[in-house]
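Ticket #4471: structure export looks truncated?
Reporter: QA, pipeline team
Priority: medium

Steps to reproduce: submit the single chain below to the structure queue and open the exported record.
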Amino acid sequence: MIGWNFQAKRNLPILLVLAVLMVVLIIKLLPSLAHEAVSQQGFPASYQVLKPEMIQPSIVGFGDIEANVQLKSIAEVAGKVVYVHPALKKGELFSKNTLLLKLDDSDARLRQAQAQAAVASAKLALAAKQIELKNTQLDIELSQHKLAIAESEFARIERLFQQSTVATAQLDNAQQALLINKQELQQLENKKSLFPLEISALEASIKQVEADLTQSELAIARAEVRLPFTGRIQQVHVEQGQFVTQGTPLFVASDIAKVLINAQFSYQAFHEFSGFFATPPNVATLSSQGMQSYLSEQILSADVSLLGNDGQIWQGRIERFSDALDPRSQTIGVVVSVANSYQHIEPGERLPLLTGMRAKVRLSAKAQEFIAIPRHLVRNGFALFADENNHLLKLAVGNALKQEHAYLFKVTAMNQQRLITTDLFPIVEGMLLQLEQSPTQS
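Actual output as written to the record:
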């Protein structure tokens, strides 16, 4: 038998190789032994017991800010631009009724003077005709009195003629006087009958010249272009000295009292959110009540912030729903308004809402009881639970109401369930867990 000399230098490499092999073998055997021990005792895991919470369900959409009222001012009369406000530039703010432009109104003022003279002349003619009518009426009354006297005198002379006390010539004179009075009365009555037509013609003439006067006054007023609201100038199309025809674009301005955001929401999210309305939307309800009345009953709120700046919040008002799905994004639009965003401006801190800005809109319904699973505890669309035997369960959250930071479930579905809060690996459904309640709930 050959003996092994451990002190021989030639055997040292062999000893080193054997030692390395032994270390590797031990390292490979340790995990399997540890895994077998953990499998028997259960994987350590923390959990929290799910309880109902009062939560406002909400959805988030995005849209561009638009002006509520946009004025595209055009020239209502033709003329030369004789005045332009010195600050009339793109982006400037002006208060209501500020005079921005003025056109040459000299022709209109000339027509105004002519129309005023024509009105005065027509009214004078009408007054004279009315006085003439009164005088004619007095003449008729006098002629009637004279006729009555002539008839009485003719009757007297006719009796005397029958008694042969007067000559035939006297009877003829009395008869002639009677006929003259009758003719005079008839002429006056004929003249009076024409007065209503003449007065109507004069009144129509007055209306015509008054219309001419009104038209000239309107032309003078339209020569001054004022801003009908407090607003911001977006475009300017004319300059001083330029001649403009009727219909020429002058400037574009937007009202700053209120802005609109047509926020777009995914169809699925809005469909789920509409389930929390007090009254589900339908055509019959909307047509009978009107959109505004219906929305005011739903106890909905809207918060608006600028994209990328959630620190500044404006309270919005839901105005209406869009009339159709967006054909490209397949989203539903909800029009939200924000009033008086120019109030409480803080330079460098809080800006007003300007046309073209991108906004984030959060719609919220009335607070209700929900079971909430934080989003960071959902892995690949599944939340992890422990059953009554401390075995791991996986639950898909696809049917939950998705919120920004959590998934919401109805209370009856999840109440008192144990939600795993530990980041387990590997995740094998049915594996035994060694549970410990999270410190926040212990």
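Status: closed, not a bug. The export was complete when the record was re-opened. Leaving a note from the reviewer for reference: The helical segments are 12-41, 106-162, 168-222, 267-274, 283-289, 291-296, 411-414.
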